[in-house]
Amino acid sequence: MQSANICVVGVGYVGLIQAVGLASFGLKVTCVDLDARKIAMLEKGIPPIFEEGLEEALREVIARGRVTFTTEIAAAGDCDLFFVAVGTPTSERTGNARLDYLDAAVSGIAAIARPEAVIAVKSTVPIGTCARLQARLDRDFAGKHLEIVSNPEFLREGTALNDFFNPERIVIGGNSEAARDKVRQSYAAFEDRGVPMIVSDTSTSETIKYAANAFLATKVTFINEISDLVETVGGDIDQVARGIGLDSRIGPQFLKAGPGYGGSCFPKDTLALATIGRRHGVQQQIVETVIRINDSRRFHILKRIESAMGDKLAGKRVAVLGLAFKANTDDVRDSPAVDIVHALLEEGAEVRSFDPVAKLSVDHRCYRQCESIAAACEGASAVLVATEWGEFRSFDFASVEPLVERRYIFDMRRVVDITAAWVPRWDIERIGSPLMRATGEAS
Questions:
Q1: Is 366 noted as a catalytic residue in this protein?
Q2: Is this structure's pTM higher than 0.70?
């Protein structure tokens, strides 16, 4: 039987998707977050993040009375299952995941929870965290018999809602069968459809999350290194990726050459895994190499742009199309595009950007975010396509030819249609390809 009363603590990206998804199954969900502004928005049916289909789904569960929002954890006192989805950012100084938000959330829950309640940690946490939390609950709240379970998320920004409703697997790690079953019951709709359920101890569950993200980050980094090789020796990186991706042992996903991985997960989780390995004397050499290569990727791109512009960026205007770390999201955390913007400004360039959703606040006299592609391209000596938005794929760059200072495009995402009629009039450089010089002819 499904848990009747569920609480989600932390309604950021992961927590909000979890809450809306479970409420869509008919469960009653109380959402708790300390950010009063966020709660006020959610009560009006306005999600604080951009995710396709989320606003419609949110408004539907609100209208059905299945979800409520509050800043007070005491309002969830009648809940018997708590999902914790607070941030665990990486410390820039140590590389360790910060767990103060998680510790505070668990303490707050324990203070008001009824006996036998289960606390499921959806936040990505270092291996051993749930065991530590359980020991603390057993010591400080022994009479309540509260249980900690690890239940990592595997959502992709831009397709998160679809990923929730169509999971490839659900991982539940706990040291008590009763606690694991309580979490499992909330996912009964998936189990009925045959979605694999991986039931384990907490350490195994925590490791699965880190290992999955590190492996995917490795695939991204691998294809980018092959892309660099293809730029030098010749070939078609898209065909190379397709050729190896059709091997069922490899698979096609995360083999798209580009500026390197970014976002809220891969950079944070690879660094945390490397730190965990060093702390336990088991160095994760592959992961550490992946981090180093990915960090240098932005510098490699900047040098290519500089070379194409005569090794001088100072005083030049550059249009940056796209700010989000990937299309279909407004997330600019650890975005390669944002790193490139800052690097260009440091080199003395003037930057004008455009993104259909994402916003970037930069306090610099040479930076301005524009409301259209054309406005960003005005007076530009270079146009950088930094995010794979669909409108950049289909954009007719002939329309901005009278506006630009120089017809030069650096396609960081390989999305520009190089068969278009305007292409022969532009210098075009793409990740994974040598520079295509303009011929001055229309095809």
A1: no
A2: yes
